[in-house]
Amino acid sequence: METIQAILESKLRAAAGDTGGIPVTVQATQDARFGDYQGNLAMQLAKVRKANPRVVAQEIIARLDVADICEAPEIAGAGFINFRLKPATLAAHFAALAKDSRFGVPVVPQRRLVIDFSSPNVAKPMHVGHIRSTFLGDALARIGRFLGHVVVADNHIGDWGTQFGMLCLAWKTIIDKAALERDPIGELERVYKLQNEACKSDPAAMDAARAELVKLQAGDAENLAIWKEMIRLSQVQFDTIYARLDIKFDCTLGESFYNPWLKDTVGELLRTGIAQKSDGAICVFSDGGVPEKEDPFLIKDENGWKPSPALVQKADGASNYTTTDLATIAYRVREFAPDEIIYVTDGRQQLHFRQFFAIWRRLHVESAVTLSHCWFGSILGEDGKPFKTRSGDTVKLADLLDEAEERAYKVVREKNPELPEPECREIARIIGIGAVKYADLLPNRQGDYVFSWDKLLSFQGNTAPYLQNAYVRIRSIFRKAGESALNPQPSALNFTEPAEFALIKKLAQFGETLPGILTDHRPNILCNYLFELANAYHSFYEACPVLKAAEPARSSRLALSDVTARTLKHGLSLLGIEVPERM
Ligand code: ARG
User: Fold this and answer.
1) Would the CB of 130 count as within 6 Å of ligand 1?
2) Is the CB of 254 under 6 A from ligand 1?
3) How far apart are the CA of 228 and the centre of ligand 1, in A?
4) Which of 170, 336, 422, 545 is the most buried (most CB within 10 A)?
5) CA distance 506 to 184
6) Burial of 310 (0-12, 13-18, 19+ CB in 10 A)
7) Domain ranges of the chain
8) For domain 4-85, is the CATH number 3.20.20.140?
């Protein structure tokens, strides 16, 4: 179905005529004094035409045909046009919404998206550093799919690199097989640390590790088998965590998958003159194609701009992360024909992405694929320093999820002493995991955020438990009334109260909010929307009795409650968050 916003925009477009490319938009207002929707088109047109914006607004309104859905539009302030919807418009929109399986989300032009996210490294535990990429990427994939796009969720795991020389050596010399059996990743992590230390202080150990790496790269059977076993053990660990988080990938093509194309990638860069030999290594330098400030191959110091090349082959002939990423885009473009590839990583990788995007563009001037780096800030502890365990180690994702469930369990148990144990555990799982995901998705992704158990598990404020609780409270109304109390017959709907209309307006905004999330890859927009929706419901519930109301208000309010509950549940599911039926 069409959104109210889209209907108003097309009417406004018809009235405005040729805007000379100025986009015609209206926004839902935050403040009811400015009507329900507001547009600043007249002000933008007036600027270009050097005219009085209020006069331009007057001219547009004279041609504007909105009488079927709005009160007479008003001009406000410097030339805003304000629209106030008729109560009948809102009631009719709600009736359509109640029957719409897409929750009022319009069909948008389909696009093909590859989302590269999570991407942990083999032989290491998944830790807090992977949280944001995993949750953000998954939310974008879910939202993309619901909007109707073709989404390829690709886990670009780190399964290649110099660390495997040390790991092969450690596997042959110091590994404790019993420990490996018990806790594979813990043991791999332990021996890697030991081997790394040994290599730092002992050149002979370093040489031995290098020799193992060379053998692995040359396809030595024993080392290949060890390497494959390390990948298998790691994947078991990743899969356990993804199952817990209900995260699915369409493919898991690790870095090593692209090895066969690395030599050709470097060769092509040399042939086209994009890369040059430099001290035995092969690098890409600036081609002066963009202003210095925007050039990823330049860096500024006190003496001015100087080269900051991207390395694509080391002096020893080995390729690196950049080479692999270049081969990876080529593969994805061939295989998936994406309109956009979205890479979800830490903000510290920004330079890497700017450089290899630029190299790809120079190599494929004709390529229309949009390359997006969806980067994020760090998670901090309550002391404002990087989030660590009490003993100063990195926080493992599995431990974090265990703690979330355990803490949620205490809260749920305290609230419901009589709840059977398995049900209490299940609710605690839904609340605990949901709370961690939501706390991560809510802040603007480009900032750092402070991880606080008390805040994220609170039933008050903008948290998952608050939204889950809003859902549960609505469901309990239906338990009391009986599910059959719901009478969604549009003819029976009748709304009179401002709080009812305010809630309908919020519900109508779901379809207006969702498509924009993919523009700049910001699921936090959905978090904030759901919080506003829960608040609008809360105000409605305070102002309007539901079960005690007389007909037709009772049925109408039940219908409002039902659509709100379903929208909350669906919206949370797009963030990868479940809802319990009670809590
Ligand atoms: N494995 C990398 C890391 O842990 C992330 C990979 C991101 N994706 C990519 N195509 N570079 O930092």
Assistant:
1) no
2) no
3) 19
4) 170
5) 50
6) buried
7) 4-85
8) no
